[in-house]
Amino acid sequence: MEEKGNIWCCTRFESAYPGRLLAYEGMPGAFYVKGNLPDEERKTVAIVGARACSAYGAHQAYHFGKSLAEHGVQVISGLARGIDGKAHLGALDGGGKTFAVMGCGVDICYPAEHRRLYERMIREGGGVLSEFDNGTPPCGRNFPQRNRIISGLADLILVVEAKARSGSLITASYALEQGKTVYALPGRVGDALSEGCNRLIGDGAGIAYSVETILEELKISFGKQEDLQRKNKIRLASQEEMVYSCLGLYPKNIEEIVHEMPFSAREISGILLNLELKGLIEEPVKNYYARAGG
Description:
Blueprint: E1 2-4, E2 7-11, E3 30-35, E4 44-49, H1 55-70, E5 74-77, H2 83-93, E6 98-101, H3 115-123, E7 127-130, H4 142-153, E8 156-160, H5 167-177, E9 181-184, H6 195-202, E10 206-207, H7 211-217, H8 225-231, H9 238-245, E11 252-253, H10 254-260, H11 265-277, E12 281-285, E13 288-291
Parallel strand pairs: 4-5, 4-8, 5-6, 6-7, 8-9, 9-10
Antiparallel strand pairs: 1-2, 2-3, 3-7, 11-13, 12-13
């Protein structure tokens, strides 16, 4: 095990090498790792999907990542924009560990705007890994190649939004070759971002209509709602808590919220976005907000 700074190299002849990958052909002989590798004894779900995702897709990726992490499931993805990033963020906010398989060297954060997420993943016990040497820049051919590792490390693969031609479908294909279970989030017929998921479901993938469905597949019991709420008590900054408290299960127009709150319209828009990304509120109609689960 060779170390260089806080980046270390693990070869397939060492005990630290992920045992889950040893069963498959074509896996790399060594990994570069920054942080940690996934715990082999814990359940792991890969959440993948479109980079240019919809607000709905972003919300669902965050929600699944957070809820799975709250039940002790590790989340793995590729740190890409869109679904990947939201899944990582959800897992961290759920108190879990999350891991990214990179299409570049682990010393490079790609995309650059995910620097804080990249650092937080490592700081909170997760890590990033790659088969590519340090300094290797991100290039198109590397990303489909790394997808076999994402699926290989996971017990189950969840696809959240994917076009008919998508890197996420490559991950799903690798997963099926490896004998892994694939689930997909159903979408509206005719939506480009739903074509890949709906096709997977048509071909026999599981339908991810709730977190409970995934937990049942993993043979993890879903805690009683009151216990879950007590364990994961909502922790909000004071401004977010004030805005959240003024909302109910019936949608309220943003103008009403601005009128009731001592903040500017711009500040409230930012707070509402944060609450929505955390899965706490919903926007069922444009500019109307309500608490999630109504």
